Each structure stands twice: as C-alpha cells, then as structure tokens.
Amino acid sequence: VEEPTGTGARQVRSLVDVQKGEISREIFIDEQIFKAELENLFPRAWLFVGHATQVPNPGDFFSSWMGADPVLLTRDNKGELNVLLNSCRHRGMRVCRYDEGNTLQFTCPYHAWSYSIDGSLVDTPGALHGVPQQKAAYGTNLEREKWGLVRAAKVHNYKGLVFANWDPEAPSFDEYVGDFHWWLDNLADAFDGTEGGTEAYRGVHKWRIRSNWKFVSENFLGDTYHGASTHASVEAVGIGPGGKGKRRHGERQNEGGFSKGRMKTSFRRGHGASDNIAYEIPYPEFAEDDLDDYFVAAWEKRKEKLQAEGRLLGGRGPATLFPNMSFAAGFPRTILVAHPISPTETEVWRWYLVDKSAPEKVRDWLRRYYMRYAGPAGMTEQDDMENWDYATESSRGVIARRYPFNYQQGLGQETASDLAGSVHSHHAIAGEVNARAFYRRWAEFVDNLSWPELTKLAQVDDRTTEHVAETTDVAGGVKVL
Ligand code: FES
Ligand code: FE
After folding, report:
1. What does the alpha-carbon distance between residue 221 and residue 326 come to, in Å, rounded to a whole number?
2. E strand or H helix at 267, and its extent?
3. Which residue lies with its CA nearest to atom 2 of ligand 1?
4. Are 227 and 266 in contact (CB under 8 A)?
5. Phi first, then psi: what are they for 28, rounded to 5°?
6. Which phi and psi angles does 320 have, rounded to 5°?
7. Are 258 and 252 in contact (CB under 8 A)?
8. What's the complex ipTM?
9. Cα 200–253–287 angle (5° rounding)?
10. CA nearest to 265, candidates 308, 316, 222, 215
11. Which residue in 66, 58, 72, 155 sits closest to 108, CA to CA?
C-alpha cells in the first residue's frame, strides 16, 4: 500500500487493477483504507436512507444510518421529508433512540435540548422544552437557528425510495444514477407497472456479519456465478426462485431460452445489475395456485407497458446502486443496505416491498415467502453470509494478504449498450465486468478525486471497438441473438 497523498487519501487505485483483473485483498481488510472510505466515499455518495411509506404522517420518524453516522428520516408538519444527523449539537447524545415512531419533538436525554421534527432547535419556554435555563446559561448569546440538528445537504425521494447526500457539491440524484434508474423503476413501481406503486412492509431486518461491506455490494451487482453452488441447498428443499417449472439456479441460467436473455449491465458510475431480458414471469414454482391470477394479470399489464416503451423485459436485478444499496426487483422484491462498521464487520439491513394495491392474501403469502427466502433466518442469506465471513477470516492473515483476488471473468469482452455510460456482458453466469467497474469507481472515490474529475470519468465511454460484439436495437436492452 502506498503512502498517503497530499489529499490525505491513500492511492487505493493501485490496488485495483481492472486491466489485469486483479484486486488486492487489502481493500477488504485494511484499517486505513476503511477510514478513507468513511471520509471520502460515504459522505459524498448518494445513500439510501429509508422508504417514504415508513413515515407517512407529520411527526413520523425512522432511524437509519449513512455510512458511520446515525440519521433520522422524518416527515415534518409541512409534509416534507428531512434527513437529520441523530446527534445532539450540545454534547452529541443521540437525540432519538427508537427505531421508528411519531413524536412532537426530539428531546435530548442528556441536558434536554429539544429539536422539532424538522431538526430546528425548539424555541419554547420551559425546562424540558427548547434549551433548559437558556436565559441563565446563555443570556441572549445563543443563536438558536445555528444549532439545529445537522441536515443532509441533499434529500431526494425517488418514487418512495428516499436518498440523501451530505455533500452540497454532489451532483443531483438523477445525474448520479444515470440510466440505472431503470432498475430503480422496476423496484419502486408496482408489479403491474404502476409508477411508485409500492410500500415497505413494517419492520426492517437487521443483523451483523463478520465481513467487509463490499462483499455484499459485489455479490448483488453481478455475482450470478455463486448461485448453483452456494444455493444448492435452497433448491434441494424446493424453495428456489428458479421460475415456475424450473428447479435449480444452474438449470435456470444454463438452459437455452432463459439464458439467451440473461445479461449483466455495468455502469461507469459503479452501479451494476444482472438480469433476465425475456418476457417471462419470474414466478416461484411453489406459489399457491390461487395467487396465479393476481401475479399473472399484473405481469401481463407490465409487459404491455414495457413493450409500448420499446423495452425488453428485465431490470429486475439483482443489482447494486453504488456504493451500498443492493436490491432485487422480482421475487423477492427487497432492498438491502450494507452499513460499514469496521473493515471486517458490516450491519446488513433489509427492507421488503409490496404493491400498495396487493390484496391481503398476496401480502401474507409474500411476507412468508420473504422471511423463508431472505433475511437472517432465510435460506439464501445464510448461505451467502457463510461465504463472506469465512472469506474475510481467511484473507486477513499476513500471507493471504499478499495475494490478490481474481476478477478476470469475461475480461475484455464487454458488449455495447444503449444505456448511457454502461456496457453489457453476455457471460450469462461467469462475467465479472460489473465487479471490475464497481471497484474502479470505488477507488476513485476513496482516493478523493474531485467532483469535476469524478464526473469526467463517469462520461468516459468504456466501449472499445473490439469489445463491441453485438449492437443494441431495442431501447433498454440488447438484441437477443
Ligand atoms: Fe444533548 Fe446536552 S448532549 S442537551
Ligand atoms: Fe446469494
């Protein structure tokens, strides 16, 4: 690892060699690199905070995290969303220690400074309101308007998905996301295509794993390679998402019709997704028959909408919005955020979405399906966690750290994409273009490149002539050969 540069950042780009497809294990282990992530990446990236339906009414709040900082997502009396640092301006006490709820104000437990739901320091006389004994303590010197809770510089509600950014210089959410918004649409829109027609189930699954947060992001943004081996047990007990009539992850991916339409999409901005582009419902084989009507009818509507837009079906993921919001937009429809705790510890949060219009029976079936399939007690999550935890433990040794990981799948064989700033890979299972692009972008942030530099790099066209094996003739998809 090279010495810090003048900006205080380490030259982590030298540890990420996307030309050779080799990435140092240090980036998953090293304390200094983790510190640089906390300083240069998380305070500048757009981060997922929560779902707007978690705070429907004035006074509602939801406790979340942005990188290493606790935040409150609140709905104020004007109906606006606020993202506030959950730390008192007096001595830093957490002003709210509940996961969610409704309140008139946040009163700090330490010395009782009180903040309104929009974060301003309350101006109400009385010992337990506003600033206790304000007159005696401060006279007229306390400039109350300056001492409200720290606010995120930017907040954006994308069809119910609420994101925030600490950096006033950061590009707009739309610019940061680019054409990757198509995957967010499929997550946030209802199953039948109704825009923003989803809501979050009450409650968020939260658990800790003993591995680096990037293992989670990388897995979701394009690691279809692990399914057939890691999740073999899921298929063995018959709860796999292989599609109706299909049993195995491997079977689904290798089989003619379906795999022809499977591809990965890698964005220069670091986002990535793997996808199916076929007009086929991603429907679990074990769904109860009387739910067919609901899902099939919704899917037909969705298909019509996508066809009218000239798009092939897809965009369901799994996918990762750079850096740490992963999601899947099929079965299950879920959001997963990997909160960094230390280089080798991560707190994982999972939200689950359902159509606002879904009947009770569908909600109940999906709820049970989600719990069984994903989350800390779900079958797939347990499989994945084991891999990440053991990979971390056996990579932290002195000898292991000298040897990089191999990211050479599909090297140099990316294909053209009509989505701005992206390339595709038709290595249906074994392709690591998404991971290479993710770590390249990660290193640019951690090395603390300026916004103009980051923006310029995001516009570099990754495609080279020899990489263009196929051309796109359908918006949002590629020609299925
Ligand atoms: Fe909050 Fe003192 S720490 S009032
Ligand atoms: Fe998995």
Report:
1. 7
2. strand 262-267
3. 111
4. no
5. -100, -5
6. -135, 125
7. yes
8. 0.98
9. 45
10. 222
11. 72
Backbone angles phi, psi at 100, to 5 degrees: -165, 165
- Is-contact 46 62, C-beta < 8 A? no
From 91, 106, 138, mutation site for ligand 1 pocket: most ligand atoms within 8 A of C-beta: 91
**For residue 65, which of 341, 271, 323, 321 has the smallest C-alpha distance?**
341
DSSP letter for each residue of 334-353: EEEEEEEEETTEEEEEEEEE
Residue recorded with tokens 């008192």: 88
Sorted by where each starts, the structural domains of the chain and their CATH numbers stand as 47-154 (2.102.10.10), 179-467 (3.90.380.10)
Probe residue for ligand 1, chosen from 86, 113, 138 as the CB with the greatest number of ligand atoms within 8 Å? 113
- Encoded tokens for 181: 């918004």
Q: How far is CA 12 from CA 17, 197, 440, 460, 475, in A?
A: 10, 41, 10, 20, 36
Token output for 314: 């897809």
Instruction: Please give the Cα distance from 97 to 110 (Å, whole number).
Output: 12
The answer to whether residue 182 scores a pLDDT higher than 90 is no
Which mutation among 94, 108, 115, 150 tests ligand 1's pocket best, with the greatest number of atoms within 8 A of CB? 108
**DSSP strand E in 300-434: where?**
319-321, 325-329, 333-342, 345-355, 405-406, 422-425
Question: Considering only CA atoms, which of 159, 161, 183, 174 is closest in space to residue 476?
Answer: 183
d(CA 355, CA 159): 13
Length of the chain: 481
Ligand 2 centroid to 9 CA: how many Å? 33
In degrees, rounded to 5, the angle at the alpha carbon of residue 222 between the alpha carbons of residues 369 and 326 is 55
Q: Which residues line ligand 1 (CB under 6 A)?
A: 88, 90-91, 93, 108, 110-113
User: Rounded to whole angstroms, what are the CA distances from 291 to 130, 193, 227, 286?
Assistant: 53, 18, 27, 11
Element (H, E) at 64: strand 60-66
Q: What digits encode the pLDDT tens for the residues 100-123? A: 999 999 999 999 999 999 999 997
Backbone angles phi, psi at 315, to 5 degrees: 75, 20
273-285 confidence digits (pLDDT tens)? 887 655 555 555 5
Distance from C-alpha of 65 to C-alpha of 73, rounded to nearest angstrom: 10
Helices (H) and strands (E) in the chain, counts: 14, 21
134-170 tens-digit pLDDT: 889 999 899 999 999 999 999 999 999 999 999 999 9
> Which of residues 3 and 371 earns the better pLDDT score?
371
Q: 349 — alpha (psi -120 to 50), left (phi > 0) or beta? A: beta
